[in-house]
Each structure stands twice: as C-alpha cells, then as structure tokens.
Amino acid sequence: MTKIELLLLIDALENKIRYIEEGTEELRERVRELRVKFYQEHGLSNGKKEGPSIVRSN
Fold first, then answer.
1. What's the DSSP call for residue 1?
2. 17 partner at 20 to 30 Å CA-CA among 6, 34, 41, 44?
3. What are the φ/ψ torsions at residue 44 (nearest 5 degrees)?
4. pLDDT at 50
5. CA dist 11 to 22, 29, 44, Å?
C-alpha cells in the first residue's frame, strides 16, 4: 500500500469509529428514556430500582 492509500484507510476508519460512537450514544440516551418511562409506569421513584441489582457477566 502506498502512503496515500494508508492515509485514506486511516481516514475511513476514523469516520467509521465516529459513526459507531455517535450511534452508541444515541442508544444510551434511548435506553435512559425507556428506563425512566418504565420506572414511572411501575410506580418506582427517582429511577431507582427496588430489589436486587441485575448483574450481567460476559
């Protein structure tokens, strides 16, 4: 690969990363909105869950 091709590849990768980061933030905001709505609909206060926390493992 030439230097120009590498620079174009780097630029494309940076754009893709930015796109993914923006999409991730939009998803986080939507999850927050849905969480607040759920808490309100189920009579939970201040966005706090009652009972044990949900623990996830990968």
1. -
2. 34
3. -90, 145
4. 53
5. 17, 27, 46
pLDDT tens, 33-44?
999 999 999 998
**pTM attached to this predicted model:** 0.56
CA 14 to chain centre: 18
Query: What is the DSSP annotation of 3-57?
Result: HHHHHHHHHHHHHHHHHHHHHHHHHHHHHHHHHHHHHHHTT-STTPPPSSPP---
Closest CA to 54 of 33, 30, 38: 38
Burial 22-31 (b: 16+ CB within 10 A, else e): eeeeeeeeee
| Predicted pLDDT at 30 | 96
